[in-house]
Structures are given as structure tokens and as C-alpha cells.
Design brief:
Layout: H1 4-11, H2 15-22, H3 32-45, E1 59-64, H4 68-73, H5 76-90, E2 94-99, E3 113-117, H6 122-131, E4 135-138, E5 148-152, H7 154-167, E6 173-178, H8 191-203, E7 211-214, H9 218-229, E8 237-240, H10 243-255, E9 265-270, E10 283-286, H11 289-305, E11 313-316, E12 319-321
Parallel strand pairs: 1-2, 1-3, 3-4, 4-5, 5-11, 6-7, 6-8, 8-9, 9-10
Antiparallel strand pairs: 10-12
Helix pairs in contact: 1-2, 1-3, 3-5, 5-11, 7-8, 9-10
């Protein structure tokens, strides 16, 4: 018969830690990685608490759209993942992580549900929802509500950014955006670009030729800003669709000897940790990244408990965080 000692040995923790964890001791504080080791050890050994039948340990797959390298260059998805792992770890749910470019995804066989993090084509979404019992797509929007999706309210966020710049007296406002290519070769429709153009036209802003689209990276932000310098005129303010883009643009602006925000005001998007450490600190749209991850995990567990399943679309609010770059 399997004992706590067997579980403790496999998980490389003490027997008392195993006991407190399995008995939901509220005073116990251990890293999420250790929690996962314990859950895997319990499942591997088949340990059951004496006097009662052991509850089934749920296993959730986490499929990353980004590669490991891309995730390291842009912390947006790292923060979403932290929210997922924190929520599931506290509820003793085992997580199996897979990146989309991994050749072997067979380890996802037998999972209870899947969180797909990032941008997926229609073909992939259909395939995943056919293959796994319950799937929730995070950071995805679809034209119709066919799948379980959670995304951010980009349209209102862009409206906040433009309204703030207009209140400061800006009329010539540009946009530095990025594009994301799906598995089928199509480009994901970023609602921020559409929202910016609609609002700029509605308000009669001067935005041409100050709208550029490249990649979501510091390098792209730097390159797009250099392109603007080659034009006949410059905008007095820029909205950037990610903080890395804004940080790259900031470097290019300062290399030209211009001041921020006196010569060009900048607004980023995401509110990553680096945004508050730029010079000057970056005004940005706070995206609830960790909260989106936690909501995704919560909704997945709720879906597993339900007897009636209907697809849903959940949109989370963003908020302007004013610092010194505007």
C-alpha cells in the first residue's frame, strides 16, 4: 500500500508538507512548481487518503501559441500563464504545458480540458475542440460565438488612449501596431487598429501617414519610428499597440535628440513591468493579463462541472495608466 512517505520521496518534500497540502492547510505556503510535483507524485503512486476515497486529480493541458523564445522576448503571455498556473495550482490541478511548435504533443492525451493560449486559425480551433472535452481560447476573438473565448476590450482601451491625448491638445496622432500570422497564413484581425482608425476618423484627427504596422517587438518599434523620421512631418503623439513597440520607439526618438513628451508623446499597451522603468516612465494601457489567465482557468473548471454547454465570449476591461510619457 502506498504511504505518505512514498509520495514525499517522489516529490522530494517532507511528509508533513505532503500531509498539510492534501489537507488544505491554509497556513501552508509553497511554490506552484512544488505543488505540481506533489500532484504528479500522488497521481503516479496512486496514493489515497485513509478513510475516504481519493478525489480524482484533474489534468489540464496548456497549449502555447508562442514559442519559448517569443515568450521570453515579450512577457505578455508569461503574465497570462502566471494567472493560469496560480489559479490551478491553488486548486490542486495538474498542468501539462506544451508549445505549439513542439513535435510531440501526445502528452496531452487523456487530459480533462485544454487552455489554448494565443492566436489559432479556424482549422486549429475546430480540431482542438473536436479532440479535447472542453477547450477555452485565451487572447482570442472570433466574429461569431462558436467557441469559448476570453479577450480584452481593445476598442474601449484605444478610445481611452485617444481621449487622453486629445485632452492634452494633440491632433496629429499616429499608431504603431503589429500583426500576427496564423497557421493558415492569414493575419489575425487586431481590434486595436480598427478601433484607432474609426475613432480617429470620427474625431477628425490627422493620422495619415502616421499609421505603421510591423511586429510586436522593441526592434519593430525602433524601426517604425525611424521610418516616421524619414517622412515630411511627425505626429505630436503616438499610440503603440504593445509596450515593447513603445520602448523601441522611445529609443529611436531619444536618439534623434527629441524629448518625450514635449516633442512626441507616447502611450504603450499592456503595462508590462519594464513600462514603469523607462525614462520617462511610460503611460500605457493596463491589460489584466494575469486576471485573464485566472478567469480562463476558472471558466474551464466551471465548464467541466456543467451539464449544459454553450459557447461563450468573455471580454475583460483595460484601463489607462498615466505616467510621464504623455
Amino acid at each position: 500500500m502506498t504511504t505518505l512517505k512514498d509520495v514525499a520521496k517522489l516529490a522530494n518534500v517532507s511528509v508533513s508538507t505532503i500531509s498539510r497540502f492534501l489537507n488544505n492547510d491554509p497556513t501552508l505556503s509553497i511554490p506552484e512548481e512544488t505543488q505540481q510535483h506533489i500532484l504528479e507524485a500522488v497521481q503516479t503512486t496512486g496514493y489515497q487518503k485513509k478513510g475516504k476515497k481519493q478525489d480524482k486529480i484533474l489534468t489540464i493541458g496548456l497549449l502555447h501559441w508562442y514559442s519559448i523564445e517569443q515568450e521570453l522576448n515579450d512577457p505578455y503571455y508569461i503574465n497570462v500563464r502566471k494567472g493560469i498556473e496560480s489559479y490551478l495550482g491553488k486548486r490542486k490541478v495538474k498542468i501539462i504545458r506544451v508549445f505549439k511548435d513542439d513535435l510531440d504533443q501526445s502528452i496531452l492525451q487523456g487530459i480533462d480540458g485544454l487552455i489554448a493560449l494565443g492566436k489559432f486559425s479556424s482549422r486549429e480551433m475546430k480540431e482542438l475542440t473536436t479532440r479535447y472535452p472542453v477547450v477555452i481560447f485565451l487572447d482570442m476573438e472570433t466574429e461569431t460565438i462558436e467557441y469559448n473565448t476570453i479577450a480584452l476590450d481593445f476598442s474601449n482601451a484605444i478610445t481611452q488612449a485617444l481621449s487622453h491625448l486629445q485632452e492634452l491638445g494633440h491632433h496629429k496622432i499616429g499608431l504603431l501596431a503589429g500583426y500576427e500570422v496564423l497557421e493558415d497564413g492569414s493575419v489575425y484581425r487586431d481590434q486595436r487598429i480598427k478601433a484607432f482608425l474609426n475613432k480617429a476618423k470620427q474625431e477628425g484627427l490627422e493620422y495619415n501617414p502616421y499609421v505603421l504596422i510591423d511586429r510586436y517587438s522593441k526592434e519593430s518599434g525602433y524601426s517604425m519610428m525611424k521610418t516616421l523620421f524619414k517622412g515630411n512631418s511627425l505626429p505630436s503623439a503616438l499610440v503603440c499597440c504593445s509596450d515593447p513597440i513603445a520602448i523601441g520607439a522611445m529609443k529611436a526618438i531619444q536618439e534623434e535628440g527629441l524629448r518625450i513628451p514635449e516633442d512626441i508623446a507616447l502611450i504603450g499597451f499592456d503595462d508590462i513591468q519594464d513600462a514603469s522603468f523607462t525614462n520617462p516612465p511610460l503611460t500605457t494601457i493596463h491589460a489584466p493579463m494575469e486576471e485573464m489567465g485566472a478567469y480562463g482557468a476558472m471558466m474551464l473548471l466551471n465548464e467541466l462541472d456543467k451539464k449544459i454547454h454553450l459557447p461563450f465570449r468573455l471580454v475583460l476591461p483595460c484601463k489607462l495608466k498615466i505616467r510621464k510619457s504623455t
